[in-house]
């Protein structure tokens, strides 16, 4: 997980000077301080809190669907469980960009999503647990005490779509289904913990909406807005680095389709699109364009256009990852690589510089 408070300090103290930031945009009049309080309030009340609530509610529906599947073991209930899983992926991917605050406490994020699994260690753990089929491993409490690789969405995807998933119908109430039911319940519980933290009136939401001496998170408006900018940049960066480049880095590097997130359920591109929808939702609903000085309003139009372009590009990719990385389709991925890099630079260097937060620090330098 990224050291968010370190990023904030670096951004404000001018360490790690970025030549890219200096050359990408000329000095501007800086942050619109008057707009900052309302931007932070909207970010919390209209984006973050509803995002986590939607995720928690979707995971509750997923748990119910898994319960029904284990009880009946029919194709119809399996289809409903898969549909509920897809729905949870969408809601999680939208709010997943907020990798700061309560979700990174006690490894809650990893409990919900363990990815990437670069050496396949997590997959082997899931396969071994299913093969062992110990009845003690079919409760939420039992799963919550195990490795993060056994607890979250990628584990449940394997249950529903991986080798041997036909057992979900062949063996009504079998171990595989009961394990998946427990995983779904664990995801629901973890999501509920994040929701509870954000819903507490005098907790993190108050700290975020009221920077200053009384805040546990931000010294002032500038530091708070830096955190929002970090969410935007790292949200876009995550799509490129941890999603797209996990499976495709360009024509000169062999593609790795089975490193793609959610490839078994064909949710790879849907998840990536939802990640960027989350970026766009924060950008637009929080009103982050209002932080720009009047002479830099064109930067906001550029970000809106680039987000639309890249989300549209993702929608045109083949959901079958093996097909998507074929020679006939690689031009689309090359375009996506270029567009994603451009989006990151625009948000970090152009927007960041325009509101006076990127001089002396580059959010996109990988630190």
UniProtKB/TrEMBL annotation:
Signal peptide residues on this chain, from the entry's feature table: 1-21
Any Pfam family the entry gives: Peptidase_M75
Keyword check for Mitochondrion: no
InterPro entries, per database record: Imelysin-like (IPR018976), Imelysin-like_IPPA (IPR034984), Imelysin_sf (IPR038352)
Superkingdom, taxonomy of origin: Bacteria
Chief location category: other
Coiled-coil ranges per UniProt: none
Domain Imelysin-like: 48-339
Record's keyword terms, sorted: Signal
Compartments, as annotated in UniProt: Cell envelope
Name recorded for this polypeptide: Imelysin-like domain-containing protein
Organism (species): Rhizobium mesosinicum
